[in-house]
Amino acid sequence: MNANNKDHAALADEFNKDEPRVDWHDETLWWVRQKRDRAAAQVADWEVLRDTASRIKDNVLSRLSEYLQHFEAAATANGIVIHWAADAAEHNEIILSLLRQHGVDQMVKSKSMLTEECGLNEFLEEKGVGVVDTDLGERVVQLAGEPPSHIVLPCIHKKKEEIGEIFHEHLGTPAGNADPQFLTHAARLHLREKFLTRRVALTGINFAVAETGEFVVCTNEGNADMGAHLADVHIACMGIEKLIPQRRHLGVFLRLLTRSATGQPITTYSSHFKRPRPGQEMHIVLVDNGRSTHLGRKDFRSSLKCIRCAACFNTCPVYRRSGGHSYHTAVAGPIGSILSPNLDMKKYADLPFASTLCGSCSNVCPVKIDIHEQLYKWRQVIVQEGYAPAGKRAAMRAMNWVLSHPAAYHTAGKTGRWVMAHVPFTVNNGLNVWYKQREMPAAPKQSFGEWYKKNRRDHEQQR
Amino acid sequence: MRVGLFIPCYVDQFYPQVGIATLRLLEKFGCEVVYPPGQTCCGQPMANSGFGHLTQGCNDLFIKNFSSFDYIVAPSGSCVLHIKEHLHGADDAAAAIRSKIYELVEFLTDVLQVQQIDAEFPHKVGLHQSCHGQRGLKLAQMSELMAPPFSKPERLLKLVKGIELVELDRKDECCGFGGTFCVAEEAVSVKMGKDRVADHLRHGAEYITAADMSCLMHLEGILRRQKSPVQVRHIAEILNGRS
Lengths: 463, 243
Known about the structure:
The structure holds two protein chains of two kinds. Chain A is built from 22 helices and ten strands. Chain A has helices at residues 8-15, 19-41, 46-62, 64-77, 88-101, 113-118, 120-126, 136-144, 160-171, 180-197, 223-230, 250-261, 291-295, 311-315, 317-320, 333-343, 360-364, 371-384, 390-404, 406-414, 418-422, 448-462, and strands at residues 81-85, 106-109, 130-133, 200-203, 207-209, 214-219, 233-239, 243-244, 269-273, 281-287. The longest helix of chain A has 23 residues, at 19-41. Chain A starts with 7 loop residues before the first helix and ends with a helix. In chain B, 47% of the residues lie in helices and 12% in strands. The chains are: A alpha/beta, B alpha/beta.
């Protein structure tokens, strides 16, 4: 994902080399956040709805194995074939074997962040299978040879002129034409041919209903439906946490999902799939890939409540100014920063630190995940597991020693305002990073403690 | 009412005038204020960096210094939040401190129930809502929630004669300080700070105020680098009548 092994800070630094672009990215996503605010304000008892969704998901997680078995039984009774994948590799092999069974080496795929998490596209390409992403944004990044930068708006980092160039190169549209309507039409023609000729369609799953064995796929473009309805084989992939107990709970989640995501009342298409149509095969791949482990982490399990709306991305002042690729993982943003360390703590040790802990993410989350508190807790775990840089460890120990000894603190304070040199300006290296773009605070003649001693302590002692 | 004054380490070292303003303000409202000289730091810089396990020394010092007071007050939402959430100890002392420590603004509005303030500040002022005070201590309603608005710092500032509070485009966006984030993620931190500063400048603020000096230290660093005439003032300084 990130060939250079750069961490979030380094990648964010690169992103910030082009400040007007950062402004544009920030303002675009802030506009989505504002749309979300307006949409949420129109729902009476929005906060009650969030609370309800949170409780339903708590219930799901507390009885996950039970609901999964219910779901498997109900879906099987509906004629759907259920597959279980313990990890990404098993998931990818299951998909490949289904394609091979049908003698197919091409398929269409609507948006599924799970398949991004599992690296399915790369795996299938290595095996000679052509995958066409049919979500417009995903198709754009696929043609550009990039991963999505946002789970709901995959090519939000691209300007329309850049998309015009990509289409010119890959789809033969006229050079210099960046008209959104024209480009969308070109994409439609291009994708229509794929929909009509591919015999296997893969989709994600937004909600799977344990009670009925059905599932719901939400898209704005209808591309999941186009794929699934035209193909002989529909494969739907889901993480095991995507369950909800009953169909009526969709009334909670469908109201929250898109308002939180884009500020729309509901997705253009909320498609319910229950059984294969005559002659069609329908498969569901239930994927664990670390989720059971995560469920066992008491402090972090509630992050499995996530419904992938990306409201936390849009509100995050860091995400808006660092871009999705700076997170070097399939699910970026605040939620990705608490999910990814579970998958690979060393590789993603930087992500829980890519936050100011401002707490805005937890407030917009439609299922009330305490995201910023989990960021804090992951920091503790990562340091204790030994994944903090050595320089930072040494600086923290030194700082802590001084701050634990009042006499040392006062002496250090006098000798050149010790705090200025150590807290926290230079913890990541020997240079004064603070000063690069900011003035240092002016050092006063005396600290408050010294002032107090001179002006008040005598007075205190006389009392 | 005996109040223990907790002055965060960076305020002690860089902004003694904020400590002095806090002390005088509390005394104006009749509190007996004592500054325990053995205090250092709440431990937050280490804890937020993932080194919470190192903070036992700061933790124990804090309990030792502040156990004997009726209330503990600090001019910082962030440090107070840290104590409220993380101060720990075997006996009841830590729990008692967690429940009797207040950030200055909420102490004025909720405990002292201040209704009038004898201060004048005839300037256009932008109020920066520091995140830990706002979202952590709930000093003001948060823009993400669909709930009735309120703001304790704004209520106090409106009691100051001559002050004009400016509206902001993003009324509660983080400034990007974030403790060690300010250097570990320098590029994003500075960009966030520049954007906050620009919002205040766009609306004609002559001063930026906040209940947390750490945010203001960061914003001041940017303002001074830009050679802007706009200055920062901790809310205690304005409420205490310094112009």
